[in-house]
TrEMBL record:
Gene3D superfamilies: 3.40.190.80, Fructose-1,6-Bisphosphatase, subunit A, domain 1 (3.30.540.10), Mitochondrial import inner membrane translocase subunit Tim21 (3.10.450.320)
Enzyme Commission number(s) of this protein: 3.1.3.25
Protein name: inositol-phosphate phosphatase
Molecular-function GO term, any one: inositol monophosphate 1-phosphatase activity
Any single Gene Ontology cellular-component annotation: TIM23 mitochondrial import inner membrane translocase complex
Signal peptide: none
Superkingdom, natural source: Eukaryota
Listed cofactors: Mg(2+)
Length: 651
């Protein structure tokens, strides 16, 4: 790359960092909208998002072929992989927690890398007006003056900077605490700045001698690592291996000898790469669901939408790509804040003012459940038809077998008749034989008598044999009849069992449909009925927002939320307590208001009248700081003077 190109990049980033520093300085002492990312201590403000948008937009206009890695865009799910292409690595505010609490260790970090090597590094603290910069091979500078590290070689004389980060995993905390203890036992002192970039810059200018970090990202120390190395410091992996910007850990020391003394004391922590983080996949699935449901809008500048804030919903949503918060009347570009909108989903309206995003998601889930049950019913019906078809085949086989049995019975009957007729014939022949025998008793020795006797004996034997065969065939017919009856009983039993199964399946399907209907009814009643805590909460919040004293005391715009934490992505129900008071059903609930000047807690008490409808006893707002000598603002009070409003809220 030409030297001229590097000078152009360097001057451009200095101008843009100076412009972004003015935005940070303006927002340092004002009330900020705070959101969370991976946990409750991993914070982000609207200034982080705004500054990163300014830097990326200006750099992309000047260098359209370059790639970008930004902290907030990576948190939103964009790819954060360093390649050989020219890449700008941006951390809009390093030390966001310091920025939120008013601690001046805040920095804007911009690095430029080619072939995975950082060429330019700029770290700017606009609160203290400290500008650190470096170009590879040209040294490090602070506000234009060259700087160098301390060249300290002894750990016992060194001032070391440590960090705990925002991870609250017990194993990580134990390892970091052990590292801090091992270092403090041997070092001169230990400090914690809350900013990885500024910690490395302090080593570069010689104020500190070493820094150990586990859990930082590439945008936290890409720029400051170059500044420290150009100032003469030594950077490496805490294990002593060469530094890899994607491994999320580093050891920086004034000298290599000092780093060699610190490395054996450390308990090392391994981190997965960004591409394996589950939060990115969760956000991708969430964005996919939203895009399928409402369709992603074309990109639109955030300034275009924000000009329509404090107007009505219809004007905001007429602009393609804008979303509207009902509670604070903010209009913003939805594709810039897809996972961290400035209000809860119950107040967010996108594409239509007819219903909020939470309602659409519930309806979508209900429709999906109905479709799933319909699919199950179709599968059961198809299975039932298959069973009926198999049953018809079995019935056809049984009918064929029955016809065969009938044919066998007919054949057995014919044989039985034949045997009976033969027996009758024998009985008719026997009397004539006896008569002949009597007539020929005296001639029994004659050849004629002997021949007749032999014939009669043969006929008698034949008749006896025929009787035995007939009896055996009768027994076979009886056995076949018994077997047929058993088959018919078994077939009836199988039919009864199959009928019981079909009845059970039908009962299960009917019960599922009834349960789904009841669930849909409960959800719709909870969302839209006034006689529920959520209904009272929505009505009371509108009354509070319309009250002029509340507007003057808190300062507009005013945000309404059900938990003390502002900007939570969870869908929370309002806290409510239902009880009986003097024979009437009563309910108290509380929610929170946050304005530009003050915040407050709203206490509401309602009681059912003779029409079984809730009426208000009082609506009070308890302020966190006095306003015109008052701590409580009365928004609504029952005309019944026998029920005075409480002087303080019991929450």
């Amino acid at each position: 790359m030409l030297e001229h190109d590097i000078d152009v990049y360097y001057k451009t980033v200095l101008e843009l960092v100076s412009l972004a520093g003015k935005v940070v300085s303006q927002g340092f002492s004002v009330t900020k909208r705070i959101e969370t990312k991976s946990n409750t201590v991993d914070l982000v403000t609207e200034y982080d998002q705004r500054i990163e948008e300014i830097l990326i937009k200006q750099l992309r206009e000047k260098f359209p072929t370059h790639k970008f890695i930004g902290e907030e865009s990576s948190a939103a799910g964009h790819e954060a992989t360093l390649t050989d292409d020219p890449t700008w690595i941006i951390d809009p505010i390093d030390g966001t927690t310091n920025f939120v609490h008013g601690f001046p260790m805040v920095a804007i970090c911009v690095a430029f890398a080619i072939g995975k090597d950082v060429i330019i590094g700029v770290v700017f603290n606009p609160i203290l007006d400290h500008l650190y910069s470096a170009v590879r091979g040209k040294g490090a500078f602070k506000n234009g003056r060259p700087i160098q590290c301390s060249k300290q070689t002894e750990l016992g004389l060194s001032q070391v900077i440590g960090a705990y980060g925002y991870s609250r995993d017990p194993a990580v905390l134990d390892a970091k605490s052990k590292n801090q203890r091992m270092i403090i036992e041997k070092a001169h002192s230990i400090r914690m700045m809350g900013s990885a970039a500024l910690s490395l810059c302090l080593i570069a200018e010689g104020s500190c001698d070493a820094y150990v970090e586990y859990g930082a990202y590439i945008w936290d120390y890409a720029a400051s690592d170059l500044i420290a190395r150009e100032a003469g410091a030594y950077t490496c992996d805490p294990t002593g291996a060469p530094l890899d910007l994607s491994h999320r850990r580093m050891l920086c020391a004034a000298t290599k000898e000092l780093a060699a003394q610190i490395s054996p004391l450390l308990t090392h922590i391994d981190y997965v790469s960004d591409s394996k983080k589950p939060t990115i996949m969760n956000r991708f699935l969430f964005l996919t669901l939203i895009s399928v449901f409402v369709g992603l809008a074309s990109s639109v500048p955030d300034e275009t939408c924000r000009r329509l804030s404090n107007s009505d919903c219809e004007k905001c949503l007429k602009e393609s790509g804008c979303a509207f918060c009902q509670n604070n009347k903010q209009c913003f570009a939805y594709d810039l804040y897809p996972t961290h909108p400035p209000c809860s989903t119950s107040e967010l309206k996108f594409k239509t003012c007819f219903a909020d995003l939470q309602t659409w998601l519930i309806v979508l889930g209900s429709v999906g459940g109905v479709i799933l049950i319909a699919i199950i019913v179709i599968i059961i019906c198809c299975r039932k038809k298959c069973i009926q078809r198999a049953r018809r085949r079995d019935q056809a086989k049984e009918d064929a077998y029955g016809r065969k049995l009938d044919e066998r019975r007919v054949e057995a009957g014919i044989r039985s008749e034949e045997r009976k007729q033969a027996a009758d014939n024998i009985q008719m022949i026997l009397p004539s034989i006896c008569f002949v025998a009597k007539q020929c008793q005296h001639q029994w020795r004659s050849p004629l008598f002997r021949s007749v006797l032999v014939i009669n004996q043969r006929q008698l034997a034949t008749s006896t044999k025929q009787k035995k065969d007939s009896k055996k065939q009768d027994n076979n017919v009886v056995v076949q009849s018994t077997t047929e009856n058993q088959i018919e009983v078994a077939t009836f039993k199988e039919k009864a069992q199959q009928a019981a199964k079909d009845t059970g399946y039908s009962v299960i399907v009917i019960a599922g449909v009834a349960a789904l209907g009841g669930l849909c009814y409960l959800m719709l009643r909870e969302l839209y009925s006034r006689e529920t805590p959520n209904g009272i909460y929505k009505e009371a919040s509108k009354m509070c927002l319309a009250n002029t004293e509340v507007q003057d005391a808190l300062g507009t715009p005013i945000m309404v939320h059900t938990t003390p934490q502002v900007g939570s992505m969870r869908i929370n129900n309002v806290r409510a307590k239902v009880f009986d008071e003097k024979g009437h059903r009563s309910m108290t609930l509380a929610f929170y208001l946050t304005g530009k000047e003050r915040s407050g807690v709203v206490g509401v008490k309602v009681q059912k009248n003779i029409s079984n409808k809730f009426v208000y006893d009082y609506i009070l707002v308890q302020l966190d700081r006095p306003w015109r000598g008052r701590n409580i603002i009365q928004v609504h009070q029952n005309l019944d003077t026998s029920k005075p409003a409480p002087q303080a809220l019991d929450l």
